[in-house]
Amino acid sequence: MRTNRRTILQLAGGAAVALAAPAIITTRARAADKRIAMIVKNLGNSYFDACANGAKEAAAEIGGIEIIYTASAKPTAEEQIAVIDAQIAQKVDGIIVSANDADALVPVGKKAMERGIKVMSFDSAIAPAGRIVHLSASSTPLIGAKQVQMIAKTLGNKGEVAILSAASTMTNQNSWIEAMKEEWKKPEYKDMPLVATVYGDDQDDKSYREMQGLVKAHPNLKGVISPTTIGIRSGAKAIVDGGLVGKVYITGLGLPSEMKDYVLKGACDSFAIWNPVEYGYSSTMIMNDILNGKDTSEGAKLSMGKKGETTVGKDGECIMGEPFEFNKSNVEEFAKIF
After folding, report:
1. Do residue 267 and residue 306 come from a single domain?
2. How confident is the model over 226-281, as pLDDT tens digits?
3. Which of 113, 126, 198, 271 is the most buried (most CB within 10 A)?
């Protein structure tokens, strides 16, 4: 999976069109008594627009919240710092940031907090010194387990399975694969052996060829897990092109806009990534707790509204939950978003 946005996933920096001017989304259930700025990597990015819609939903649910959704024209640390400075000057109550640079934003984050503004990050973290908490979309154990669970559901826990990864040197891919293997140790997967792990190097053509190679090398192959957006779409294409629909299935981490057709054609039963609407919603709910003086020390609980609670970990790290699953019931809806 690509680094930054494509590792959502992580997922930042896809094909996005930046707008020249910031946008403001204001939600008032009554006269706003709190203003929260959601500052993302760049505007014109449908993923972040969906995050803003989630923030808007949370603000309406809470009441008395104004959401200022804004970003710079270019996804650089320098321009993002200028946007944050502008919100500091406006004396907002809270700032939620998807950081373009973890370390470069620390001074401006400190500046905001010194002036009484609460700062948190989501999607892409500010280093701990520059914010109070960071909300990650998911965790390595959850990401690994989810992918094994999805292919097991599709196959009824029976049949040979392989992994089509990105590059063998990618830390996140290797961590997710190790987490998959931990999940695989459970007795319910005894009839679903892992027969091979191959690497497509996050290149469409190589991932496509590796998928073809897996099918040839393992004639009894029933499922493939690809924890990379490029691998899963290329593997799914190889299944369709090879007339293997209904014989071999692929799952993993993908984007609805890229996987919709393959889900509808039957090459992929389900796949996962995080839901950006829920991400924006949960972040706003957490910021509301922070603004209300809730404890943010390690071990404390913070509300994510209808998403439940999250526990503050070391260095203010919080987890939203397991990756969001997409299938025929919802993929078309989300394909319009990202």
Report:
1. no
2. 999 999 999 999 999 999 999 999 999 999 999 999 999 999 999 999 999 999 99
3. 271
